[in-house]
Amino acid sequence: MTHSKTSSIDLATRWLVLGLLALYTVYNVGPIFWLLLSSFKGRMDFFTMPPKLFFTPDLSGYQAVFGVGAAKDSASAVGVFDSLVNSVIVSVAGTSLAVFFGTLAGYVCSRFNFIGKGDFMFFVLSTRMLPPVAVLVFYHLMFARLGLADTRTGLVLVSIFANVGLATWIMKGFFDGVPKEVEQIAIVNGYTRMYAFLKLVLPMVKGGIAATAGFCFIFAWNEFAFASILTTTQAKTLPVKISAASGATGIEWTQICAAGVVLIIPVLIFFYLIRKHLLMGMTFGVLGRR
Amino acid sequence: MAGTANSLNPESQAAAHAARQTELRKRSSGRLMIFGFLSPTLAILLFMVAYPIFSLIYYSFFNFSALRQATMKPVGFNNYKFLLSDPDLWERFIFTGKFVFICVTLQMLIGIFVGYQMQKNFRGRDVIFTLLMMPMMLSPVVVGFLWRYMLNSEWGVINFLVSSAGFAKVDWLGQTNPALWAAAAADTWMWTPFIVLLATAAFRGIPETIYEAAEVDGASPAYRFFRITLPMSAPVLFIALILRLIDSFKQYDLFVALTGGGPGSSTETVSFSVAKTAFSYFYTGEASALAVILLVIIIGLSMILVRHLTKMGEKY
What we know:
Chain A is mostly helical. Chain A contains 14 helices and two strands.
């Protein structure tokens, strides 16, 4: 008797758990579905009540983002494609340099003990925690004085600084996973440390470098605060451009949704490619290394 | 005695000398490597972080506007005094605190719950897991606009669902409290996957043998969860908690796109307030002081995090 009672409670719990999970899935996936659907809605279908699930797809949002077709010449589409180009240039350049510097620093932090190492590591990571608006108060002045305001060079600089700390910590995590004996044996055999680093250790963390680049790219690609304050016309990135996507009839929702979809595609690809290292990237290389 | 005899032998002396030379060369090449490898990172961080922060502290003692850079009047601690006695600023802090509390609580609870379910192996797990991670991949500004669009009181899909369920439409973004909850819902939507990711990994890292031992002792599922799963994954969950605390405390992008700080200035976070003071009013001195206050809080939280991370890094 007790047995049947517990099992009915179990069953109820199970259904409750499933129900809550289903609810969460709707909450989680619903908005993404809505974003995708809305990116194909033209102005006529956008504001209807009840909202339409079936309609003739309108590609004007995507045409504006990629600078093709009829919609590229509309007033609200001016400069949107340029901002996509800016986004690509800034994120790729910023990511490459941040990963390059971070790999070097991460190797040293993994292999050597030096005075102030703990402080250096804290300083490096704290840059990732920094509220962008705080430093922006001064960047605003500094960039104007150095002639970096509204330039891609300026944004690349910001992108390096914003990601190099993360890259250093993640790469340290990957280097920690390589046995120290690799260099020791190389040195005993008469090779230099530099040779051991370049020819032996570096190839062993190739996957790690790719994963680090993936992470830095995602952050650089989605960055908004810095780019929104430090650009005015020429160097706007896509997230900044769409936040100002107001036409004669108010906010260009179709364009914003299309840009949102376009922005998520490379991130989705990178997420998939680095899925094994996701945990490591999210915990600064501390967890999830094997 | 043998040592002395050996050192008198010229051949072995030369060998020892050579060994010392190699040792020295190795050490100095190590030093060169440390210096060479760290300097680019250090240089860019000094230029982009240390220099701006020191400048902020310096400007925070001046009555200064970026628009009129010629006039700079030293005012001592007046900027800080003014800010700390300004009831508006306290409201920003209270709002930010409420927002952080709601977000972090919801995200941790939902994240741990979903993570606990996702640790099991089932068919299609990888696909579902990737789908669940998607909100985190979006740019915060896109998230803000997406929710603003869905929450529109006239033609938003959420009010459509609300009114189909028989309730009156809610003016989500036009009133203070609904706007707070709307922002929390958007932030929770975006960042719960992050907790799910960390929690799942933490839960899967617990050795099966511990559960088996508990099974033998006849432990209930609740006991298993509260006495084994939670304590054993606490260090990882703590990292997740602190990271979310820091990130939601400095939240800015989301509010720019979702509420624009409105209605009035009721949904302005501290970060938002810094930006408004600096880039709308151009009270640069005052904004610097506020930025310094914000930095102190964030650096305090970061120190807790880093100490914890370093400890974990040694353990794993």
